Amino acid sequence: MTSADFPPRRFPQGYLPLTLLILVVYLLYLPFSGYERLVYDAELYWFISIYFHKAGSLSLLHFHDGMRGYVYPLLLLPARVAQYYSGLPPIWFARVLGAATAAGVFGWTGPALWQVATGAAQPPTWPRRLAFAALGFAFWREHFNFTLTDFPALGALGLGLWLLCRHPGRWGWALLAGVCLAAAANMRPVYLAAAPFGLALQWLRLPAGRGRGPQRGAVAAALLGAALVLYPQLRINQRHFGQTTPLVLVQDVNIAPGTLYRAKLQRGLVFQKYETTIDPAYPWPVLFFLDPEGRAVLRAEGIGQFGSYGHYLRFARRRPLLLLRVYARHLFNGLDLQYPTPYLRQVYVSTWGLAALNYTVWFGAGLVLWLRRHRRRRALSWSGGLLLAALLAPCLLVLPTDIECRYLLPLHLLLYAVLCFGWPAAWRPARRQWALLGAIYVGFLLLCFAASASVQARLELGGRSLLGHRLPPPTPL
């Protein structure tokens, strides 16, 4: 392994103009997006950011939420204080923070990671980066009204990986990278799966011939940076919950320690997908899309819940084909984005246009990979593979669970990047190729619509069509 994987060129500063443009676009759009207040988890994150203040003093150790880590509420604290003294609605501050996050992720993090992964001397061109940002806006724009951890955590993960790639062996940058990776895992515990690949990336990125000392030092610096973030969480857990762990406990009065993921494994067999809504016409705040096959098998085996991970593994050995089908459905449903918001204002509304754009992105990304298939082995280095693994490992962990589209956020953005940054500029297909591609595209689109329609029809309290029509509830088992 040598430094040739990521050529040591001076990193260009060409990202700022487009990043600022994205910031302005979101600042102008979000106030008119139709939301008036924070709700559900977004409101809760905003509320618990005041936990650091108690009896006239500020301390990290005052934080006492067992379900969520302290990092994101701490980042919200300055805005929370400003909102308190100004009296302005909390969602105003959430929009400013959201616009900054969107600008960072779509204007810099995504393109910059692509640049280091491919070893390019220059950033992707303006039109390509603009297309990437436009897809992000089309699919995720209303998420940035809310104080949720999905994009901040992914941004922290991306920054940490970028630092490891661009500054190998520099202990100060490695320390900062460790801070970023640990912050991402504290905000979204599933991102802990990226940590081993990040450390391996730091180990392998050092130029050959420098011995093991610099490698050990760089990895130690990254671990120290992570410890700086994780130690307060350890103290919080010890003080308030009697648990000696630096990881987020993910527990509350209804969820015992260490049982949430196991419960989500069981729910992953009951539900194909779920969404959250604020539609007053829908009876529940959560939309559950039933999985008849998984429910039938659980009922046949008399499984109400998995008592241990061993229990789930034994079930997997008995039903490997079932689980493969379940995971495939979860992958499709996790990528099948129907709304650009985490909180649906209206359940029964036409979504075929956004769905068609989404399927077109899949088709385009697949076409790019096909066109570049002979270059992939040669182009993807060990470092590039580790970078890819760090981004996708969290997605693999959530596939067995009850899925929500934002759980696969790294994969969504990777598909946008492949299409926008990887499209071969010199490709000029013949007319017959266009005709063949058109036929394949139409067939692919029809298959995707059919698969999506079958899932939407399984909405528990009344199925929905992609045209927004309400359908009868699915037949009970």
UniProtKB/TrEMBL annotation:
Domain of life, source organism: Bacteria
Listed transmembrane segments: 15-32, 92-114, 144-164, 171-194, 351-372, 379-401, 407-427, 434-455
Protein name listed in UniProt: Glycosyltransferase RgtA/B/C/D-like domain-containing protein
UniProt keyword list: Membrane, Transmembrane, Transmembrane helix
